[in-house]
Amino acid sequence: MAEQEEIKQENLSLKIDTLTLRSKKENLLCDVSVLDEELEKRMDFINLLDKLKTILDKLLSMIPVVREFVRLVEEKKDIRAASPYGYTPLGRLLKEYRTPLLRYDRLVIFPEITSWQTSKGEVIPVYEDYNRRGTEYRLAGFWNVQTEQGIKNSEIRDEIIPENRICTLEQAEVYVKAVESFMEEMKSTESVRHDRSVYKTDKEKDGWSR
């Protein structure tokens, strides 16, 4: 009788241990699943940042040409956008970003390249496409971004200066550095998380084997 009772107790203890191990295993699998899902979401976010960085890198390559453009605007000079060999780098930039002003013959603006904050509001330069081929541009005035009205060059001439420059592609340089810093921080965090989860899993496995 004593032996049977002892066997019964051992069987009961074995069942309890089995149920405990099964519960721990299920909890661990659940934790791992949550971690995997969290990691996948973060990796998707990092991939999006990679794509954003690619776009910003493209904008960065335009910065020297953008600087040439804003210099010519601030010096109120005409723009020669072609050479005997074809469009210049500036000419290609202007061709890509030009927007015709409706109802105004040959007048174009470049709203995505740069703007200036003045006493008349935020303005962008208005150029006359002199020969209609996008190779010769003459400064005709400025365009108010908010009111969509023209402003004479003489009214804000002295306000078109570097200190008043806003919304330029040059800001892409700042964005790229911010994105790179954030991405490095994210990747570092994910690496630490991964190492900790592996370490925890190994400890749990060691506990089961005892």
Fold blueprint:
Layout: H1 2-74, E1 79-80, E2 82-83, E3 86-87, H2 89-97, E4 99-100, E5 107-109, E6 115-118, E7 121-129, E8 136-144, E9 150-151, H3 153-156, E10 165-166, H4 172-209
Helix pairs in contact: 1-4
Note the beta-strand portion.
15-25%
The overall pLDDT average reads 76
- What would you call the structural class? alpha+beta
Shape call:
elongated
Number of strands: 10
| Rounded radius of gyration (Å) | 33 Å
For the termini, the CA-CA separation is 31 Å
Q: What is the string of helix and strand elements?
A: HEEEHEEEEEEHEH
Number of helices: 4
Major sheet, described briefly? 8 strands, antiparallel
Indicate the low-confidence ranges by residue numbers. none
Helix coverage percent of residues? Answer: 55-70%
Q: In summary, what is this structure?
A:
With 210 residues, the protein is an alpha+beta fold. It has helices at residues 2-74, 89-97, 153-156, 172-209, and strands at residues 79-80, 82-83, 86-87, 99-100, 107-109, 115-118, 121-129, 136-144, 150-151, 165-166.
Describe the structure.
By secondary structure, the protein is an alpha+beta fold. The chain has helices at 2-74, 89-97, 153-156, 172-209; strands spanning 79-80, 82-83, 86-87, 99-100, 107-109, 115-118, 121-129, 136-144, 150-151, 165-166. Strands 1, 4, 5, 6, 7, 8, 9 and 10 form an eight-stranded antiparallel sheet that branches. A two-stranded antiparallel sheet has the order 2-3. Helix 1 (2-74) packs antiparallel against helix 4 (172-209). It is elongated. The model has no long low-confidence stretch (mean pLDDT 76).
